């Protein structure tokens, strides 16, 4: 191909953000929902400084990260300059990292066992900082996947709130990769309703429109915003 070929260059991050935002708006319209009722969490795991600068320039301020230490490297030195930044932990958390997670994150989406609830409460008391918490539910009961089993979710939510005093505001799920996600989104929504929880973090690049149709309040989108991730 000659350099003057009109073949379109790869979409820029700004163009991808615009495209994802308009798909969110369209999904909200189709579902009769206010677009302001859905928060776009940009999943910034593995991204370099250039990509982060580009997405910040679009006004995006809510980010999801999978690993505590990686997130510290990416965000700790930017926090002071970015009022309104919201960091959400969306990957599994070991109890020995609970204090670091409480120090950095505004929301921890992956509470899935009582031992971790206790560690988060201890860290919150020590640091005087209480991130909001979502309980991750393993809606497909997949053995390799994190999350509390659906049958055990009510008990964990109650213990986290009542025994440990955590600010549990909702639920998160990652449906099985090879299934229709809709029944998983519905299950998450019904567990949330039973427990008086309003936040539903569900839907990723491949299924965020379906999740919005089923009541998602937060969609976690990586690839559709940044392009394919660099594999470490
Ligand atoms: C990586 C990741 C995402 C984003 O996935 P994409 O398919 O790239 O949009 C969302 N949620 C969790 C928990 C993830 O680990």
Automatic annotation (TrEMBL):
Positions in coiled-coil regions: none
Keyword Mitochondrion: no
Domain of life: Bacteria
Positions of the Alanine racemase N-terminal domain: 19-229
Keywords (A to Z) from UniProt: Pyridoxal phosphate
Modified residues (N6-(pyridoxal phosphate)lysine): 45
Pfam families per the UniProt record, alphabetical: Ala_racemase_N
CDD domains recorded: PLPDE_III_YBL036c_like
InterPro entries associated with the record: Ala_racemase_N (IPR001608), PyrdxlP_homeostasis (IPR011078)
Function in brief: Pyridoxal 5'-phosphate (PLP)-binding protein, which is involved in PLP homeostasis.
Protein family membership: Belongs to the pyridoxal phosphate-binding protein YggS/PROSC family.
The name this protein goes by in its record: Pyridoxal phosphate homeostasis protein
């Amino acid at each position: 191909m000659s350099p003057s070929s009109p073949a379109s260059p790869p979409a820029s991050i700004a163009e991808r953000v615009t495209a994802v935002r308009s798909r969110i708006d369209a999904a909200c319209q189709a579902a009769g929902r206010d677009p302001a009722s859905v928060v776009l969490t940009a999943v910034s795991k593995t991204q370099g400084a250039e990509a982060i600068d580009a997405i910040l320039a679009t006004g995006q301020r809510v980010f999801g990260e999978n690993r505590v230490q990686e997130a510290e490297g990416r965000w700790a030195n930017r926090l002071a300059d970015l009022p309104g930044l919201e960091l959400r932990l969306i990957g599994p958390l070991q109890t020995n990292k609970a204090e670091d997670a409480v120090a950095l994150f505004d929301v921890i989406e992956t509470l899935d066992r009582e031992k971790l609830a206790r560690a988060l409460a201890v860290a919150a008391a020590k640091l005087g900082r209480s991130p909001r918490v979502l309980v991750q539910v393993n809606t497909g009961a997949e053995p390799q996947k994190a999350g509390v089993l659906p049958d055990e979710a009510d008990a964990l939510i109650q213990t986290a709130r009542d025994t440990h005093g955590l600010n549990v505001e909702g639920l998160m799920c990652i449906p099985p990769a090879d299934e229709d996600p809709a029944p998983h989104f519905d299950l998450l929504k019904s567990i949330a309703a039973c427990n008086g929880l309003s936040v539903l973090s569900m839907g990723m690049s491949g299924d965020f429109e379906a999740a919005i149709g089923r009541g998602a309040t937060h969609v976690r989108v990586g690839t559709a915003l940044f392009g394919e991730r660099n594999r470490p």
